[in-house]
Backbone:
């Protein structure tokens, strides 16, 4: 099935036009700052009718960072609809249900239009789910409709902000929104540890344990820095293939194939998919009767009272729990239960409940939860990594054709894209798999250690900033050589 069936619908879908001519670096920065300014205004503005004081921030910190959202604000839904629409379409295309040639501008435009329609539809559905399941606490039942409307409209606006950033800014909106949310979380988390939560009380307690306690209080900062350094080191690893320009002798170069060839995008998609399940299956908490055991087998939610007196749903068991990076309160973060000692003790000795559909309960050790979550994250990252290189023109075949069009060839081999493709097939698929596995393992380690801003957020931000740095370098080169800019455009 091709995408021509969507043409009548696309006529009524608004869009952001491409700039009439290539933008300079200064112009792109202006648009980037403007779009980020709008995003942070919505990020800081609480939705009317939401009871912000009853939101359990530690429990939803990872979800907020991955989705570039802030529960209770206008950007509660965040980039979730965009990511989920992308995942669904990738699965559909990968299964062969839709035939799409992304090298054809017309088909690519249809595909992007379908993704936009899907994202806007999911935005409305998720806005309803967030409110209907109590994920966003209301100040009163009368605010239900107005809160859903606010969250849906803001989520749809984010879809267009992402499109505007992609066409007018320095990178995609998804990347910049995640980086902005992580920066906010790191600053807020650091201030909390330094002045409010752990460090000062540990030092003021005095005694022989004052220094060790203070060191443990700063452990989230230590893990944040460690993940930051490991990420930078990984981004510097690459394989370089020699190239020569076929039409001009003496001119050569190298084709770098980074170890993190697809960056952190596979783990963004994988984590977003896992966390989306924890949101979408919240409706199972209200299932009763003969289907209760089946619902709890899939996802077991428990009512947990908070310090403010309001109750909240907490995912504590089931299949969805086993593949999620979340833990029950108060074990959602090491610094929420008195430090890493109690946190790791829970991981070693704690258990969750798995209700069997035919009756009975199995106690699942938390170590099994950690292993299952990590394994599923790795598998999903590899799958999305392979999908991503095919969907974005980074496959061996696409790269070989690009080299052919520009005039580059690998010395010692005929200038034939099929030969170049066979050589690249020895590197790109393997590096994609290894890089996806490495990023997934690092993300799992970072998440489980409770780094400030979440290790996942730091990993994503380093990857995003690295991509932005590469794009800025390319933009500087195009600004310095206007003829090259005209040629490439």
Residues:
């Amino acid at each position: 099935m091709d995408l021509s069936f969507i043409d009548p619908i696309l006529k009524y879908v608004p869009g952001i036009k491409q700039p009439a001519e290539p933008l300079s670096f200064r112009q792109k920065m202006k648009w980037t700052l403007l779009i980020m300014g709008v995003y942070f205004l919505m990020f800081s503005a609480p939705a009317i009718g939401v009871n912000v004081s009853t939101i359990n921030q530690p429990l939803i910190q990872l979800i907020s960072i991955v989705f570039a959202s802030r529960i209770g604000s206008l950007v509660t839904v965040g980039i979730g609809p965009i990511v989920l629409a992308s995942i669904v379409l990738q699965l559909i295309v990968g299964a062969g249900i839709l035939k799409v040639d992304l090298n054809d501008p017309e088909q690519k435009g249809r595909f992007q239009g379908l993704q936009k329609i899907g994202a806007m539809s999911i935005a409305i559905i998720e806005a309803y789910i967030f409110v209907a399941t109590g994920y966003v606490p209301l100040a009163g039942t009368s605010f239900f409709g107005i809160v859903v409307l606010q969250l849906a409209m803001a989520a749809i606006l984010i879809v267009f902000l992402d499109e505007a950033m992609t066409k007018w800014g320095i990178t995609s909106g998804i990347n910049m929104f995640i980086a902005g949310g992580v920066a906010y979380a790191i600053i807020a988390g650091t201030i909390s540890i330094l002045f409010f939560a752990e460090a000062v009380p540990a030092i003021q307690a005095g005694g022989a344990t004052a220094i060790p306690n203070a060191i443990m209080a700063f452990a989230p900062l230590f893990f944040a820095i460690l993940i930051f350094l490991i990420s930078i080191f990984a981004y510097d690893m690459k394989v370089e293939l020699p190239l020569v320009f076929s039409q001009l002798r003496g001119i050569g170069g190298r084709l770098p194939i980074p170890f993190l060839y697809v960056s952190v995008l596979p783990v963004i998609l994988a984590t977003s998919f896992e966390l989306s399940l924890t949101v979408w299956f919240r409706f199972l908490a209200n299932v009763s009767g003969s289907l209760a055991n089946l619902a709890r087998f899939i996802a077991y939610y428990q009512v947990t009272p908070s310090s403010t007196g309001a109750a909240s749903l907490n995912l504590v068991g089931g299949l969805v729990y086993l593949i999620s990076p979340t833990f029950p309160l108060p074990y959602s973060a090491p610094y929420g239960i008195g430090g890493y000692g109690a946190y790791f003790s829970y991981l070693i000795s704690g258990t969750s409940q798995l209700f069997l559909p035919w009756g009975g309960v199995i106690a699942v050790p938390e170590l099994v939860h950690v292993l299952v979550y990590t394994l599923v994250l790795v598998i999903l990252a590899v799958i999305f990594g392979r999908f991503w290189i095919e969907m974005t023109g980074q496959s061996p075949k696409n790269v070989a054709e690009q080299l052919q069009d520009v005039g580059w060839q690998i010395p010692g081999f005929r200038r034939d894209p099929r030969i170049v493709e066979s050589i690249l097939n020895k590197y790109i698929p393997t590096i994609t798999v290894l890089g996806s596995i490495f990023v997934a393992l690092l993300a799992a380690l970072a998440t489980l250690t409770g780094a400030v801003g979440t290790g996942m957020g730091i990993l994503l931000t380093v990857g995003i900033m690295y991509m932005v740095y590469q794009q800025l370098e390319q933009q500087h080169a195009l600004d310095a050589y206007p003829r090259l800019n005209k040629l490439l455009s």
